[in-house]
Write a structure and sequence with these properties.
Strand order of the largest sheet: 4-3-2-1-5
Structural class: alpha+beta
Radius of gyration: 18 Å
Largest sheet: 5 strands, antiparallel
Number of strands: 5
Number of helices: 7
Helix content: 40-55%
Strand content: 15-25%
């Protein structure tokens, strides 16, 4: 994956980022190419060795089609959720740690529905907030809306609002540019 300044990408643990610069640094007497990323909405800057970008899991921003699929996934019935809170929490943490957007969407969906039924533990609330943050940040970029609006779209999808009513049934499929 070749990254260029101004390009939007997604870091698996930090979320959407913009490529700021490419630099070559000396490391143990060897030239090593780095990409500097600025994490959106966090003001965090990180440098990633170009040779490790794929291994770390930095990827392109989702397409409009992928976001439609995520909204459909949010609308699906929840899968089995472990009753014992420690096992449930561990399962959700493992899904979130993958950085895989469909798995993150499953965490958002299942914890949102569980929260509607009964109170979440403090750890589950934190995990839910983290998952919503990750998913909403990318949905906002793809749909060119605010993060708050993206969260609202996600909740509506979970609650069963049809894609056409969310404005996502169109054939539009373009990646956002800077």
């Amino acid at each position: 994956m070749r990254l260029v300044p101004g390009q939007f990408v997604v870091h698996p643990h930090h979320g959407p980022a913009i490529v700021l610069d490419r630099q070559v640094r000396q490391l143990k007497g060897k030239d090593v190419a780095y990409v500097e990323l600025e994490i959106q909405d966090k003001g965090l800057r990180i440098s990633v060795p170009e040779s490790m970008v794929k291994d770390i899991g930095v990827r392109d921003v989702s397409s409009h089609t992928q976001v439609r699929k995520l909204m459909s996934l949010l609308a699906k019935p929840s899968e089995y959720v472990e009753e014992q809170w420690s096992r449930r929490l561990k399962a959700f943490q493992e899904k979130l740690a993958t950085g895989d957007l469909p798995r993150v969407a499953e965490v958002v969906r299942d914890l949102h529905r569980r929260q509607a039924e009964k109170d979440l533990s403090m750890a589950e609330r934190t995990l839910y907030r983290d998952a919503v943050e990750i998913l909403a940040a990318e949905v906002a970029i793809v749909l060119d809306i605010s993060v708050v609006e993206a969260e609202d779209v996600m909740v509506q999808a979970i609650d069963g609002t049809p894609l056409k009513d969310l404005g996502l049934d169109r054939g539009k499929d373009s990646k956002q540019a800077a």
